[in-house]
Specification:
The protein is an alpha/beta fold and 424 residues long. The chain contains 14 helices and twelve strands. The relative contact order is 0.13. The structure holds nicotinamide-adenine-dinucleotide.
């Protein structure tokens, strides 16, 4: 009998299919029953909305926007809101799946979610962004909430964005609901340390990975792609204890100094000029050249799909620490694995961001706030345990850190789904 033609789901873009392929590979390695993972191959629910907003000149424009829940077996959804001209349902669904694994790996009581609006924030005023954000929040209001789905900041969104979402949600509820978002300003319930926590955790993973990969140099050389919220903290956090940061880049290009860049001086330049452009005390390189610099640790902390099949064989590093989400494609994974390059996967490397988001959610529910010391001490403890678990599985089973991390995360989600059962 002729098989019915398989329906093509609208989220099945390249980004999503890559995330799906990673899941299928790990499930096959774990010898999981395909029936077990079938629901996890797709998002649980997705909402596409057209957000209308009045521009400053009086015209009305519309923006495509999304919120996706991938799996909620472990708790409410947790994931960022991204503002970018490349936002699509597939990208958001892929990120939501990634968040499921990240939260599960860290033993957080959250499922995976993500959202975004397709726009270029550089072309919009602050008041236009506020109107778009508030309308987006009201369009997705049935999906979000402290017990349903808790958005946080991601690319091009920040504390102010989260404050607008929290206010819009609270106005609709008739009372203040701080735990509907994380990454808020401290004055309205934000956690201490949140702004720095992702970079702090990425740098922590770099130090652990250097020990794991037996990098014996007292001052390992580091290249950081992207100098935003994550990359700038990474560069500083590794420079201070004596790592040699020899290369950095932002969207305008890269800088290289084999003897090590003066990170505080460069930071001051970026703070005053807005980018690395015009910094005279280092050699200018392109972003492609930057990725191919000889170094101990390469840290992609910018955007997705930077290490691909076409450049993975050119990398001259011993370790890759994925500060960004999905900077390496599955095809590149295979090349790096074969070349013996240790890759600390995104779901571990940048998981301290969502972990600190979890702390903020807990503090908001309790209305009891921790000191910065408490936040960092709890964060270090959870990151340390997660690294221990992943390194142990990788060593025992002789698999990449990504396979080890994904298998731990998937096992936890599968167990939760098994115990809860399939309703009805
Ligand atoms: P950001 O917008 O603050 O910074 C991004 C940086 O990357 C900027 O310096 C930008 O100039 C640079 N960049 C952009 N496109 C580039 C390109 N093509 N080549 C080189 N550099 C480029 O973003 P962020 O918050 O630092 O996030 C960076 C990455 O980390 C993203 O993938 C994000 O999803 C991930 N992440 C962030 C957090 C967080 O807490 N901010 C948490 C988890 C994961």
């Amino acid at each position: 009998m002729k098989q019915p033609e398989r329906l093509h789901n609208e989220w099945e873009t390249t980004d999503f299919l890559m995330a799906q392929r990673r899941l299928e590979r790990v499930a096959a390695w774990m010898k999981l029953d395909p029936n077990t993972i079938e629901p996890l191959r797709h998002p649980k629910r997705s909402l596409s909305v057209v957000v209308p907003a009045r521009m400053d000149d009086g015209t009305v424009k519309t923006f495509m926007a999304y919120r996706v829940h991938h799996d909620l077996a472990l708790g409410p959804g947790k994931g960022g809101v991204r503002f970018h001209s490349g936002v699509s349902l597939g990208e958001v669904a892929a990120m939501a799946m990634l968040m499921t694994w990240k939260c599960a790996l860290m033993n957080l009581p959250f499922g995976g979610a993500h959202g975004g609006i397709r726009l270029d924030p550089a072309k919009l005023s602050s008041s236009e962004l506020e109107r778009i954000t508030r309308r987006y929040a009201s369009e997705i209001i049935d999906l979000i909430g402290p017990a349903e789905d808790i958005p946080g900041p991601d690319l091009n969104t920040n504390e102010q964005t989260m404050a607008w979402i929290m206010d819009t949600y609270s106005v609709n509820c008739g009372h203040t609901v701080p735990s509907v978002v994380t990454g808020k300003p401290q004055s309205i319930g934000g956690s201490l340390g949140l702004l720095q926590s992702t970079g702090f955790g990425v740098a922590y993973c770099a130090r652990r990975a250097a020990q794991f990969a037996n990098v014996t140099s007292g001052s390992p050389t580091v290249v950081v792609q992207g100098l935003g919220n994550v990359g700038s903290v990474v560069a500083r956090s590794l420079h201070e204890p004596g790592f040699t940061v020899i290369g950095v880049s932002d969207v305008t290009g890269g800088l290289y100094d084999s003897q090590g860049l003066d990170v505080p001086k460069l930071r001051a330049h970026v703070d005053s000029k807005g980018s690395i452009q015009g910094y005279k005390e280092a050699q200018v390189v392109s972003n492609d050249q930057l990725l191919e610099l000889e170094c101990d640790i390469l840290m992609p902390c910018a955007v997705a799909n930077q290490i691909r099949a076409d450049n993975a064989h050119k990398l001259k590093c011993r370790i890759v620490v994925e500060g960004a989400n999905a900077p390496t494609t599955p095809e590149a994974d295979a090349v790096l694995d074969e070349r013996g390059i240790v890759v600390v996967p995104d779901i571990l490397a940048n998981a301290s961001g969502v972990t600190d988001g979890y702390f903020e959610w807990v503090q908001g529910l309790m209305r009891l706030f921790w000191t910065e010391k408490e936040v960092y001490s709890r964060l270090t403890e959870l990151m340390s345990k997660a690294c221990d678990r992943v390194f142990e599985v990788s060593t025992k089973s002789k698999v990449s850190l990504r396979t080890a991390a994904m298998s731990l995360a998937l096992a936890r989600v599968v167990e939760a789904r098994r115990l809860r059962g399939l309703y009805p």
